[in-house]
Amino acid sequence: MFAITDIAIIxxxxxxxxxxxxxxxxxxxxxxVAEPHDVExxxxxxxxxxxxxxxxxxxxxGNNIVGTCALVKTAPQEFELAKMAVAADMRGxxxxxxxxxxxLEKCRAAGARRIWLESNRQLVAxxxxxxxxxxxxxxxxxxxxxxADIKMERWL
Length: 156
Prior knowledge:
34% of the residues lie in helices and 31% in strands. The longest helix has 15 residues, at 17-31. It starts with 6 loop residues before the first strand and ends with a strand. It is an alpha+beta fold and 156 residues long. The protein has helices spanning 17-31, 36-43, 45-50, 95-109, 124-132; strands at residues 7-11, 55-61, 64-75, 78-86, 114-119, 136-138, 150-155. The chain has a 7-stranded mixed beta sheet with strand order 1-2-3-4-5-7-6. Keywords: Transferase. Residues 10-156 form the N-acetyltransferase domain. It comes from Panacibacter microcysteis.
């Protein structure tokens, strides 16, 4: 029997880089096509996320990674919430909410004032989660993703 308390949110470990890529490609390819920027970030998350001051979080259930999200540092007090993914069989079980809350807490602990994201309105469950986490829509500008049609932010 599954309980949300069985999920541990853990920090990035190189051993889970393949899970980060696999989970993200699963949702991207389900709805869209992986774009060049997706591929570069997923192939080298340490270069694009970790080394510039960002973080990657994982949701672990037993020995399995069942969710992930990234915090990309975009300014001294600002992060982008990116590459949020939950395994198909774990969706609807509050794993995304747990990751989102952990991401917000990481941002606060890092002294961030703002967190933002880009998404697509077709991803109704994701947009609903972001609203529940306190994100509000803002105008979209200068996105590297063709699929992005909504931008949201949350002030901390």
